[in-house]
Amino acid sequence: xxxxxxxxxxxxxxxxxxxxxxxxxxxxxxxxxxxxxxxxxxxxxxxxxxxxxxxxxxxxxxxxxxxxxxxxxxxxxxxxxxxxxxxxxxxxxxxxxxxxxxxxxxxxxxxxxxxxxxxxxxxxxxxxxxxxxxxxxxxxxxxxxxxxxxxxxxxxxxxxxxxxxxxxxxxxxxxxxxxxxxxxxxxxxxxxxxxxxxxxxxxxxxxxxxxxxxxxxxxxxxxxxxxxxxxxxxxxxxxxxxxxxxxxxxxxxxxxxxxxxxxxxxxxxxxxxxxxxxxxxxxxxxxxxxxx
Length: 292
Prior knowledge:
This protein has helices at 21-29, 37-49, 64-70, 75-89, 110-121, 153-159, 188-191, 194-197, 228-232, 244-260, 275-291, and strands at residues 11-17, 52-58, 100-103, 125-129, 167-171, 200-201, 208-209, 215-220, 235-238. The longest helix is centred in the C-terminal third of the chain and has 17 residues, at 244-260. Strands 4-5-8-3-9 form a 5-stranded parallel β-sheet, sandwiched between helices. It has one domain: P-loop containing nucleotide triphosphate hydrolases (Rossmann fold). Helix content is 38%, strand content 14%. The protein is α/β, with parallel strands linked by helices. The chain is globular.
């Protein structure tokens, strides 16, 4: 079995303003002496780094078939992405993808799919694990009046990152927990609508941010725990478990990613499950046994 690495496409990049510098400067000048040092520092950094971020789109149709080969159980969403990219390539429009919700059992490659898609499109990847978070402000930030407050994940991705249209993966959205005052999914009502996302306001910085180009991919095991208005804002796909051959391809794809990300990866065989890797495992067991 061979599974090719998904190639990162060469993307055409324009620039997009993600916030207004005049608004930031005004907000900085109007801060009181007792204002949060973190907020003051945030405004100063926003002015220093500027408001332009790369907004990329592929310069040709990406190798979606290669990604289907690596993740065969994601054929349906990838075919729809192919159609949306084709429309973008025919015009001068920037890349726009409908928000995606991937439903399926744990361990079938949903998060890996999001990461590989960002690579395929030539943009950045940001990950938010909703199951491990209880704060309602994780996406939208917390008011600077609170102790230890900070901006949310969306602000971080767009202001501190390099891209106006990154992939943001919201993992296990059905397991998000909050309290009666702060809904961790509340920010998504605005963020998943293109028009309202263009003037998204992080509660910490209180400066409108253009999040209208973000590519959203959410994952879940059970859609019943997700509010209907959120579901209505996304293309929902039920991802089936892969068959035996598909499982091997997904495992190989993840293995390729890990192996290529580290210098020591070249010490390992290129293919999983081959004779060479079997011999290595046998030698490893002997060595481990010798130490004990």
